[in-house]
UniProtKB/TrEMBL annotation:
<protein>
    <recommendedName>
        <fullName>Terminase large subunit gp17-like C-terminal domain-containing protein</fullName>
    </recommendedName>
</protein>
<dbReference type="Pfam" id="PF17289">
    <property type="entry name" value="Terminase_6C"/>
</dbReference>
<dbReference type="Pfam" id="PF03237">
    <property type="entry name" value="Terminase_6N"/>
</dbReference>
<dbReference type="InterPro" id="IPR027417">
    <property type="entry name" value="P-loop_NTPase"/>
</dbReference>
<dbReference type="InterPro" id="IPR035421">
    <property type="entry name" value="Terminase_6C"/>
</dbReference>
<feature type="domain" description="Terminase large subunit gp17-like C-terminal">
    <location>
        <begin position="248"/>
        <end position="389"/>
    </location>
</feature>
<keyword id="KW-1188">Viral release from host cell</keyword>
Length: 404
């Protein structure tokens, strides 16, 4: 198919994706995981991506919780593949062979996650997996699907789902080739009934159910220190003036393994304000040090607070080589993560910590602290705990006695 033909087909698409429905930089992932609330536009994102792939690749896969879901949602739903193709590129469904065929001959075969073995044998250039967290056997089915992604030079997978705190999802998020984007239901408000969000927010706003189903955040239910309702009400604008700002760094224990937690927090009077979460994975020591110093310059930090348990004075040396604009303070953990986080969780409960922006990955880790079901180190949460502790619970915040 020529370039001009592809251009005409693309112009026939009924709608362009919103920013949150657009995949990350193509070179950065093999699996794109889009987590979103109900009605956030996940189906449109997956269908749009598969439609573009159908222009170039002949063999595709569609996997849903059941075959009924594949047909009714992914294919024939209002944001599904048939609607998205438009008059010029609308595929036809062959129910007897469970396949969708586009005018150019590209084929997408439908599979149910109820039957992982049905994925043995077929092979594909690309695949779209919908509502992964609702699959009966998510890990097993995903493995079978990936064994079939072996055509072409660069097979890709898109996974769309409302998140649930299941181990298979956490393992997927932690994969080196996975890139995660998130969107709450409100991001797609223009395409929803006006009363939909208003009604659900009035009924469930601030609850764990709203955090999961509307905000698209993985919510832990047992043993978590940080409550969804506290995180839901902690949004605030950044103050014009801050008394003190720190950037906390939680260095990775291994090179290229865990992420380096980098979180900026400021204080105004007795209130803490989370300014940025620039946590990054896969960086060298010089790389994460340079990133932390860049954040410190951006937020005009008064100090870099770095945990030294893993690297000792090496952490200070690496940060110093990056030419920081402020002093470096090393902190050492003498108690466990839960014990360190408990006073900070109490500050959230008191309404004394505010988030100046949306930090879903950070909030997921905060709610997972204490649940005992984290598959990775909570680097973002650790960095936040160090920063808030330094600003709100440090020595300079303790009462001082003066003899009169």
């Amino acid at each position: 198919m020529g370039t001009e033909d592809q251009r005409r087909l693309l112009s026939a698409l009924l709608a362009e994706p919103l920013v949150h429905q657009t995949p990350p930089d193509y070179a950065a992932w093999t699996t794109w995981l889009m987590l979103g609330g109900r009605g956030a536009g996940k189906t449109f994102a997956g269908a749009h991506w598969i439609t573009l792939n159908a222009l170039a690749y002949p063999m595709l896969a569609l996997v849903g919780p059941t075959l009924h879901d594949v047909r009714e949602v992914m294919i024939e739903g209002p944001s599904g593949l048939k609607a998205l193709g438009g008059p010029a590129f609308r595929p036809r469904w062959e129910a007897s062979r469970r396949r969708l065929i586009w005018p150019n001959g590209a084929v997408a075969y439908a599979f149910s996650a109820e039957d992982p073995d049905s994925l043995r044998g077929p092979q594909f250039h690309a695949a779209w997996a919908d509502e992964f967290c609702a699959w009966p056997k998510p890990a097993e089915t995903l493995a079978m699907l990936r064994f079939g992604l072996r055509l072409g030079e660069d097979p890709r997978l898109v996974v769309t789902s409302t998140p649930r705190p299941i181990r298979a999802l956490k393992a997927l998020i932690a994969e080196p080739g996975a890139r995660v984007t998130r969107a709450g239901t409100s991001a797609n408000a223009a395409h929803l009934a006006p009363a939909f969000l208003r009604t659900l927010e009035s009924l469930y706003g601030g609850t764990r159910l709203a955090a999961q189903e509307l905000d698209g955040i993985i919510v832990e239910t047992d043993g978590g220190l940080f409550r969804a309702e506290d995180l839901a009400r902690c949004r605030a604008a950044r103050p014009a003036r801050l008394d003190r700002v720190v950037v906390a760094v939680d260095p990775p224990a291994t090179a290229g393994g865990d992420a380096c937690g980098i979180v900026a927090v400021g204080r105004r009077d007795d209130q803490a304000f989370v300014l940025a979460d620039e946590t990054a994975r896969g960086l060298s020591p010089a790389g994460w040090a340079a990133r932390a110093v860049a954040v410190a310059r951006t937020v005009k930090a008064d100090a870099l607070v770095a945990e030294a348990n893993q690297g000792g004075d090496m952490v200070r040396a690496v940060l110093a080589q990056a030419d920081p604009p402020c002093r470096i303070t090393l902190v050492r953990a003498s108690v466990g993560k839960r014990a360190r986080a408990e006073p900070v969780a109490a500050l959230y409960e008191q309404g004394r910590v505010s988030h100046c922006g949306a930090f879903p990955a950070l909030e997921e880790e905060l709610m997972a602290l204490g649940s005992g079901d984290l598959d990775h180190s909570p680097d973002r949460a650790d960095a936040l705990v160090w920063a808030v502790s330094d600003l709100m619970l440090g020595a300079e915040r303790q009462p001082r006695l003066r003899t009169l």
